[in-house]
Design a protein that fits this description.
Two copies of one chain form a homodimer. Chain A has two helices and eight strands; from the N terminus they run E-E-E-E-E-E-E-E-H-H. Chain A has about 160 residues and is mainly beta.
Amino acid sequence: MVPIGIIRTPFSKLADMPIQPKGAADAEGRIIIDERFSEGLQDLEGFSHIYLLYKFHRAPRIELTVIPFMDDLPRGVFATRSPLRPNHIGLSIVELIGRDGNELRVKGVDILDNTPLLDIKPYIERFDRVEQSRSGWMTAGDEEVRNKRSDKRFT
Amino acid sequence: MVPIGIIRTPFSKLADMPIQPKGAADAEGRIIIDERFSEGLQDLEGFSHIYLLYKFHRAPRIELTVIPFMDDLPRGVFATRSPLRPNHIGLSIVELIGRDGNELRVKGVDILDNTPLLDIKPYIERFDRVEQSRSGWMTAGDEEVRNKRSDKRFT
């Protein structure tokens, strides 16, 4: 795996961050794609939302059981979005605002500054929309998600 | 990156596969998680849908410009879901039917048999639902997505 670029955001510390894109709706970031991959960005501007796959580069270890930010009980790491997962891959859906050459402007970044980017995929409503779902332990409301900030549990 | 398990599906050849979970709604698969990571599956059954991140292990090369299955024009690879992307990481949202120890039963697999699994994340409606979006070049209807099958262009 090689980084295809770097994610620049307003968040330089692991604590006190928004915990998901929905908690960072107004946070803007820039993605700088390595020049040798910039050809692959063609046509991306047609999409309003994109998936970012990235490396949790500051995750210091693996923990198979964690207490998520939005819960009080220990949960299996694969039932959470904790960075302390095997392979340390992060996934965020962000809003694509614009592209200037090999640079993207995005909104709703819940990502640490200088995070290495592994992949970008378009959010395609016809493929990705889930009409009805059940979200297990996650019972928090929209407002709680918007206001929650990270602490030091995963550092 | 180490595989955390293996994905077993009815699809053993790259051609003639469904091209997305929506095209494979009835296709069932099994995910066998490596015993040393099975503790991390706790609480996953509470979620009706999960993200699978996996290795496109049969992708033979990288192509920065591709013609997607659902289109006739060349597009930047990051504006498509083609396997020929840098880092060869695949992403599918599948329905979780059940768990038996370190084995998951899933539905809607558009994935090649024996694919190495890199990560599982819960689909959390409160985090992941996109209310309004624009899907660029992708103009195909639901029925076309359901019926489309892969050919040999990415082999």
